[in-house]
Amino acid sequence: MLDGLKRKLRQLSDDPVLRRWLILRALRLTPGEPAFTPHRPPCLGPGWAGLEPETPQAVFPALPEGSPRGRLTLRLPGRVLEVEPGGEATLVAAPLDDPETQLGLHRFAWVPMMKPGDDARWVATIWAAWRARFGTPDSSWAWHPYTAAERAINLITFIRRHGLPGPAEDTLAVLAAHAPAMAARLEYFGEHHTSNHLFNNGRGLYLLGLALGLPRATAAGAAILTSELGRIFRVSGLLREGSSHYHLLLTRSLSSVWLAAREHHRPEAEVFEKALRRAVAVLPHLCLPGRFPLVGDISPDCPPEHLFGLLPGGDRRSGWLDVLPPDQRAPLAALLDEVAPSEPLAEDGWLKASFGDWMGLWHADPEGWSQMPGHGHQDCGGFELHFEKEAVFVDLGRGSYAVAGEADEMVSAQAHNGLSVDGFDPYAANKPYYAESFRRTLGGAPPRLVRDPDGIDLNINGFRRLKGVGAVTRRWRFEGRRLDITDTVAGSGPHLLIRRLHTTCRVEAVAGGLHLHAPGGRRFTITAPDAEITVSPTTLWTAYGEGVPASRIEITIAAAPLPWSGLIRVEAA
């Protein structure tokens, strides 16, 4: 308790915006948190009281019995485990350092990652060991509603392809028990603080209900899914939460419920298909030639590469699509191939643009503040930029949830290709209880990405909350092989300005700047007049807990006299 109090006091001391909100709230000059009933989403009606147990009606072929052959490698979030036959009980009881790794084990997240040569009977033996220890629903993390939904979906998908692990009656009973367990703790926390988790709760109820013949679970899942579509996705079809990987993940989730609705001739199939088509149409605007930029958080649910079959030109028989039975894979592949790209997403805060051999992806949340709840970062003014097929400047992503939210360096401006003033991020840390009027007062007019024939412009007003600091303007101008980034900061007095670039290229210090040596052999020169340039090691995250070495380039003006303007020049050899 004392540690928790110290943490809250430290947070209050470090966050002047939170202190200001508390004062305004005490004076009743800003509204408080809206009233809501936790775990009871309005879409289920005022009388919703959870789900009673339902008896499964489905019959599945049996998975072959017997002990599995050979060692199994389990790919979990941030860790790879190996188990020998007979080690199942030890495996499921093992305490793991990262909570997301532990949850991945409970979610059977390794099942879709199994290799073609792995013995399917491993699932039966580990499922039996898990049931023996955790098979009764309770309030532990093993039965957290998001985890229960993921486990049920992963196992149902496996069962459809390989057969039902025995004993059949016991397996079906435990699977069916997932529905009332999820329904009792639905992750609804008001309109201001409900994330995509509620959508996934609905997905778990829906897919489990259809697979096992549980009509009440199916109906509840359908109600949640159809209600949440308009809340978590923007009109364009883009997920609101500020993460390219999470958009890809939710596109997969939409695919799964559409395929199930289509197979069972459900009335909501048309609604799901329309939403899926919008989400798919967004994907071309998130892709670059050198790699898929992982902007925002990286989900522990599955590695990004597991979902790359959903991307334009992706291998429709790879990753998650390869887990699907042929009668589901074929219609999904057809839909993916026929959907045309949506209109550009600049109004939603994402802008993909090309200028000659340069192509980039810029991000600036349309509200300025990162979505709350969400998976976005302090990346207003950040970008990922490729030259031909080489990734020159990259978004590092975030490869761990070990440190939560804004406290994580990987969420801050320090880990993005942007700018900070006096050590502060472009916008204050967001809170779910901040009213829109409070955010607008502190953040000013929202940022807007604007493209013209030779570059991109962005105005950022979030720094105006700092004493002596006004609006910030970033301009990217492309001319042939050259890029000029000009930053202008309004205000008065001296201030610490740090601009940052991140790269996986080899970095070499030279007179007057840096050389970047790309893997393909091309060289880029960086210069920044009148600034100190330093380089430090960091990590480019490629999946949750998995990354490759990268470099952080910091371009510093220790006491910039505001108003101030500075140039970064990048030239490709």
UniProtKB/TrEMBL annotation:
Its main location: periplasm. The keyword Ribosomal protein does not apply. It is found in: Periplasm. One of its GO terms (molecular function) is lyase activity. SUPFAM superfamilies: Chondroitin AC/alginate lyase. The keyword ATP-binding does not apply. Keywords: Lyase, Periplasm, Signal. One of its GO terms (cellular component) is periplasmic space. Pfam families: Hepar_II_III_C. InterPro entries: Chondroitin_lyas, Hepar_II_III_C. Residues 363-556 form the Heparinase II/III-like C-terminal domain. Gene3D superfamilies: 2.70.98.70, Chondroitin AC/alginate lyase (1.50.10.100). It comes from the Bacteria. This is Heparinase II/III-like C-terminal domain-containing protein.
